From TrEMBL, chain A:
This is Biotin-dependent carboxylase domain protein. GO terms for molecular function: ATP binding; hydrolase activity. SUPFAM superfamilies: Cyclophilin-like (SSF50891). It comes from Lentilactobacillus kisonensis DSM 19906 = JCM 15041. Keywords: ATP-binding, Hydrolase, Nucleotide-binding. Residues 25-312 form the Carboxyltransferase domain. The keyword Hydrolase applies.
TrEMBL record, chain B:
The chain crosses the membrane at residues 128-145. It comes from Lentilactobacillus kisonensis DSM 19906 = JCM 15041. Residues 4-205 form the Carboxyltransferase domain. This is TIGR00370 family protein. Keywords: ATP-binding, Hydrolase, Membrane, Nucleotide-binding, Transmembrane, Transmembrane helix. The keyword Hydrolase applies. It holds the Pfam family CT_C_D.
Amino acid sequence: MPNLSVIQPGLQTTVQDLGREIHQIDGFPVSGSMDQSSHRLANLLVGNPGRTACLEFALTGPTLIFRTATFIAVTGAQFSPTLNGDPIPQNQAIQIHKNDQLEIGTAKTGRYGYLAIKGGIKVPIVMDSRSTTLRIGIGGFHGRALVAGDQLPIQTQNTLSSYAHRRAPQEFLTSFRNPLTMLQNPLTIRILKGPQWELFSKADQARLQNQQYQLTSEADRMGYRLAGKPLTTSTQSLLSEATVFGGIQITTNGQPIVLLADRQTTGGYPVIATIFTVDIGKIVQCQNHQLIQFQLADLQSAENDIQRQSQLLQRLKAEFNDQRYQEPIGINRAAAQRIQELF
Amino acid sequence: MKPYQLRTVGDRAVSIEFPNEINPEINLRLQALAKIITADKITGIRAVIPAYHTLLVTFSAMVTTPDSLKSRLDQIIADQLAAPLPSKRTLIIPVCYEEPFAPDLADVADYAGISVDEVIQRHTNQSYLIYFLGFLPGFAYMASVDKKIAMPRLSKPRVKIPAGSVGIAGIQTGFYPVTSPGGWRLIGKTPLTLYQPENPEPFYHAGDEIKFEAIDKETFAAIQRADKLGHYHVKVVNENA
């Protein structure tokens, strides 16, 4: 199979799809992409199903050489990607020729970026998923983050002239609530009351909403620790319960941990609140020291937002399909590409 | 009938909650429900995750709503609570309770005021329900240990516990599938490989029972050799067999 060569791995680059949710019953973390809306968008731009495996990179992205022609899209945090030294835009499909070098660079804003490749990254499926779980060394590319010299299997995709149209314009990104269009300081994150909300005093329930929290440097794929004035933790001993993506646990020191993709499947700390699914990407994309303001909201708006985001993606997909029959189209583009390769 | 409640957790999950206790009957109901919900392929349901007294059911908010899911779950639970508990299987796990595998066995004997042999006898003469798996892949939370030997966990956890170690933490008992830190009182070790990254799915699941069988060091070595070659088969006893 043709491959993708890793020249520089970046800070932490892993293969991720949307995780192995059903295997939580056997104690396996879900894993999968941290910012799932950016992951889905990247795949849509190259015509992949939403859960197809992408590369996820944090803060500093990889430098890669494509050993075959294909299409790619970069989404998520704002990096400064270049192709053979020339800057390329994010949030649109880019044609790749054999031996092109892609350098992602460093995140200017945001934290996690996604590289979708037409057809996906063909690492073996482990327990129904290609996602890497670093902590236990399974999935992805040999259960680990990429290192220089790795060769990842990808598919050849010679030319698809209609792909020139596949881009997500700024207006789309804004209405899609793309996390990068939402970042501000302090950042408002909407929450729902968690299963142990009632175990906290009225004063602490108010403190969670009224104070600003700061994201600490203890932030990884398992969870982000926040710092603020501590809440009083209940002395009542809790039996462990299953965790959810975006759950906010209050640990014994009274500080919150936001549970993310690689979280343990069960936990015994009280969960005071959970983050709106469509707002998880926002908090995931925060860099250290970011200020965060929680805002209590209702379940109906959380559900509506999930549906709205999904409908927007469907609409974009339909637009791409309609554009297939617009110029530029046809064999001339394929011929032009081969001529270009000759010289 | 046990009272339960359905609680929406976040915007993509509903939790089935039974009374807040470690009770095998409650947990076996949850395991049975987990099986039914998985087998029924209910529209929009994505995963089920049991714990001691709760079963979390995650769903796709694009396909269903918490309210319609709750009314479907109410029907399933009503049917299940009226049915007898399903039969369970018991897996026999060989354990060597000798040095150097049992650094805390003498302490447990002192705590209980009985001999080491009696600790082993009390640990092996009953089976334990796997309430759920969590913490690490394949880490089984099992209970309930004979109260006499239910020694609380170490005040200062060990940094490194070898894979296969068997321990006690209060009324809980279990084995470490991978080398990890931990505070359980170590009383033995199984020669079985419990976790392989290349084939990570455990051979035991929540709702199974585990019974430990004491073996000597020679048997430990022999089973370990056979297991590594893939020639050892864990003994399984079915309740209704």
